[in-house]
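Bumping my old thread because nobody answered last time. Still need a sequence for this structure:
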């Protein structure tokens, strides 16, 4: 064997060894990735629309609390107050809606005033010009899974101006910071991230969004009592509209006496 031949043989052996190592590495990565679940939720309105398209809403009583079901990702309604209250109001809102944020304060106040007599069912409706709504709504539902929805919802609305223009990684970081804050650092942040991107949460977001389309709401916030719109003249303040909601509640309670 010449020196040249020996060099070629040696290089060939080295190449074979290298290829073997690469093959093993690729196999190991592939094996490890079998436990990695790709994100289902891409936080796009088009995804939510597609998921909602196949739902038959005629099987549900949209004016009342809807039990967790397959179409909602087996996730329950987001409810403020006593779910057994005599008055159930459904609110269709958008977390990025600049009218919904101040209205949230009035809703919380009404809830306190009618302690035990009123419950609000909040269903997020994704307005097409609010690009951050799908991600924020997913975050709120992920927080709900760990029992922090109400505080998370309040914090997101209170800080709406802070994240309103944020997108992608910046927005994600803010939403995660809010979760850490409302859970006092006790929440499972890793689970929060995973739930945000899960099929279950995407279905829940789509389910609530689809209800708004089904009943053809005219905007957000939009309130119903017994399936009837609590009419908003449009030229009044949030405080004045809150008084109209109170009048509707009082009228309903009077019929129950």
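Sorry it took so long. Here it is:
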């Amino acid at each position: 064997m010449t020196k040249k031949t020996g060099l070629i043989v040696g290089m060939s052996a080295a190449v074979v060894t290298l290829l073997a190592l690469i093959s093993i590495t690729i196999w190991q990565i592939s094996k490890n990735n079998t436990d990695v679940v790709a994100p289902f939720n891409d936080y796009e309105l088009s995804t939510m629309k597609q998921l909602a398209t196949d739902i038959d809403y005629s099987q549900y009583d949209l004016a009342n609390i809807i039990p967790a079901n397959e179409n909602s990702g087996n996730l329950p309604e987001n409810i403020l107050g006593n779910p057994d209250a005599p008055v159930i109001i459904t609110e269709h809102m958008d977390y990025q809606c600049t009218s919904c944020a101040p209205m949230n304060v009035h809703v919380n106040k009404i809830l306190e005033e009618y302690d035990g007599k009123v419950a609000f069912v909040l269903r997020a409706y994704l307005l097409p010009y609010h690009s951050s709504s799908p991600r924020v709504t997913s975050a709120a539902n992920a927080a709900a899974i760990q029992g922090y929805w109400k505080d998370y919802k309040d914090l997101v609305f209170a800080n709406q101006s802070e994240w309103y223009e944020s997108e992608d990684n910046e927005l994600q970081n803010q939403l995660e910071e809010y979760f850490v804050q409302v859970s006092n650092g006790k929440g499972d942040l890793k689970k929060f991230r995973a739930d945000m991107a899960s099929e279950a949460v995407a279905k829940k977001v789509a389910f609530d969004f689809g209800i708004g389309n089904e009943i053809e709401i005219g905007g957000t916030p939009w309130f119903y009592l017994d399936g009837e719109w609590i009419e908003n003249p449009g030229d009044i303040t949030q405080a004045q509209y809150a008084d109209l909601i109170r009048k509707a509640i009082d009228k309903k309670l009077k019929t129950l006496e």
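The mean pLDDT is 89. Let me know if any region looks off to you.
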